[in-house]
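Thread: quick sanity check before group meeting

JM: Hey all, I'm pulling together slides for Thursday and realized we never actually wrote out the predicted structure for the chain we discussed last week. Dropping the sequence here so it's in one place. If anyone has concerns about the input, flag it before I start.
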Amino acid sequence: MSGDRLDQYRSMRDFEETAEPAGVKPDPAGDADRFVVQEHHATSLHWDLRLERDGVLVSWAVPKGVPADPRQNHLAVHTEDHPLEYLDFHGDIPEGSYGAGSMKVWDTGTYETHEWKDNKAVVTLHGARVDGRYALFQTRGNQWMIHRMDPPADPTREQMPDDLRPAHATPGVLPDDVDAFGFEVRWSGVRALAFVDGGRVRLVDDDGTDVIGTFPEIRAMGRALGVTEVVLDGVLVATGPDGRPDAERMARRRSVKSDSAVRRLVASVPVTYMVFDVLWLDGHPTMELGYEERRARLDDLGLSGPAWNVPAMHPGAGAALVDAARAQGLSGVVAKRLASVYPEGETSPDWIEVRVDE
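JM (edit): ok, ran it. Output follows.
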């Protein structure tokens, strides 16, 4: 390449508007074999992998992040070289600028080069979160793939299933041994499992239909989770002006077909994904854990956003929650034995649905 290798980078930015570094002229003698992975919340969430070479940072945008498993290759889009000052860049790129959005350093460290060609690079990354040998190889134009060559960093890691089915409660009354149960509000709405991988969400209803196109506001939950790989269980709830679940408003949301109509209803008839269980987390099933432990792991995810929430679970407080649900005009409560596993695709006697609206 003739000229300054940062010419393209600079031509795409207005440094009076963005705090990104303009960069000095590349110094090919200054290599220290450093790398950075940045989590970039731009129009589309992705991770930027940058390798120091010949005085610049050779860069790829990786939409689903650096793969942790050799069985999963991820797309890596070759982008313009970046200045070395980008190794520790973080902050907000203003709206209207190239790459607008927030950026933070996700991992950093050094690397070893085993092979470097115009269409292929093989390196071993030594970072706090990514450690292992990777191959980057060109498939077409700026389209590359990144492949982990080493075994998984976690040898017990499994691939996330895509066909899990929700468990269901048995209709009944409050159990006598209330201290052995946790109690939740029964939310009326659309039951759905959320499969989240690489910041992307697939939202599957009780019939096995992906409904993320009908409820696009839930996509932002994937961005909030970042690289966390998880399967969540919950209910999509549309509320009326009184704050109670409204079946008619939910029916309106489900009936629209065009993208433009969906966008209008997102504003006028918002929904909230009420999350109450976690079935899979970062390469490991959680369904065989007790409900109380699954809830603890769910709480650790910190899921609270504009269109999703984790309602409280109340150990032992069945009667009080029933009274509260009745007073607020809610449909009932669900009692779940604290030690119970997740009965995937089945109805469990350890989960009891207590209705107060009948």
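AS: nice. The chain has a mean pLDDT of 94. The chain is about 15% helix and 40% strand.
JM: adding both to the slides.
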